[in-house]
């Protein structure tokens, strides 16, 4: 185990050195310079808001694919931070509306062979998306990559906006169905975009990505419990953050089954009666989706057929091209393992300070070496 940890720490240090070089350009400077290279801004944004996605970006061996992934995940990060950066729903709707119009203008400019729209020139994420959409390396795929994916971007905006509005209008925890639908509309949708950027259009892989997205969406909800309960102190505090209502992001069904009282969670944290049991049930559901993703992947490549020979099955192993998409399941897997180590206590200090630590880096490195299909 010592050797593994050493390898992981070396990999993490390597990534840290890389990130420090990219972080030298501040986010403000990048946003203020219309002609500036957008990649440092994307790196910085993901390092601050979505470290798993930042690490996963290294799994894309081709620079055009890597930039496309960074742009997609940074787009999601920009949307995800809107609720914490506005003081009321109206301002949030205006922000989401701006993104909706900007994506529409971006795709229209590509269709007519025009330069970057004026609204996108000062926004590094939109600049990166425009560069990606114009890149011949991505446009020459059989499905033309992301050129026909505007509906995915628009659907992400709608999902985030709906969540903002429902959070302020409803003061009860979501149902399991609502949580899974939201995961499908966000995390799964991002996985579909990753398939698009690789030029893959396959219903069987859509099913795999749907399961992976739901697993990742549920684990993200579990990881965010301290934040939404106002029991995790953010590095920066804004009026929007301090005025935001507390929320308990766990399925109603599990809270009722284990007699969890929401106010008790806010007062007692992990000592609230039944909380760990509700977290366990949600984690089990997320793990079930990982199992379903593995099963769907085996079916997609014929591994479940008893009539095939061993040689045929070997020929049908998932291609290396799919590894970056399949590796999207690893952050969920590593988080669930970390949650189990602390007896399903979402408020445990190690989860709040560093949910996955070096283990995520090690797991991603192992997947890139052995193949994602064998490790998630």
From TrEMBL:
<dbReference type="Pfam" id="PF00494">
    <property type="entry name" value="SQS_PSY"/>
</dbReference>
<feature type="region of interest" description="Disordered">
    <location>
        <begin position="14"/>
        <end position="35"/>
    </location>
</feature>
<feature type="compositionally biased region" description="Low complexity">
    <location>
        <begin position="14"/>
        <end position="33"/>
    </location>
</feature>
<protein>
    <recommendedName>
        <fullName>Squalene/phytoene synthase</fullName>
    </recommendedName>
</protein>
<dbReference type="InterPro" id="IPR002060">
    <property type="entry name" value="Squ/phyt_synthse"/>
</dbReference>
<dbReference type="InterPro" id="IPR008949">
    <property type="entry name" value="Isoprenoid_synthase_dom_sf"/>
</dbReference>
